[in-house]
Amino acid sequence: MVAGVCAGIGQFFGIDPNIVRIVFAALTVFSAGAAALVYLAAWVIVPEEGEAGSIAENYFNKKKS
User: Fold this and answer.
1) pLDDT in tens, 15-65
2) Count of domains for the chain
3) Rounded to whole angstroms, how far apart are CA atoms 23 and 11?
4) Residue 53 and residue 23: Cα distance in Å, rounded?
5) DSSP-derived 3-state class of residue 26
6) Domain that holds residue 24
7) pTM for the complete prediction?
8) Nearest-angstrom CA–CA distance, 4 and 12
């Protein structure tokens, strides 16, 4: 529950966020940590609730200015 990625995925698909967390945990263990990289990528790419853009979008738009 670091960045709310699992809660957001659960809300988007209409499933319990705890199920998403369990799946992410299992995938992280069985993929030797690759799912943790997916989680970090989602943290950067998926915008926070109520925000217009993601962390990555805000960073690149800031660089353009």
Assistant:
1) 999 999 999 999 999 999 899 898 988 888 888 878 888 888 888 888 776
2) 1
3) 15
4) 26
5) helix
6) 5-64
7) 0.73
8) 12
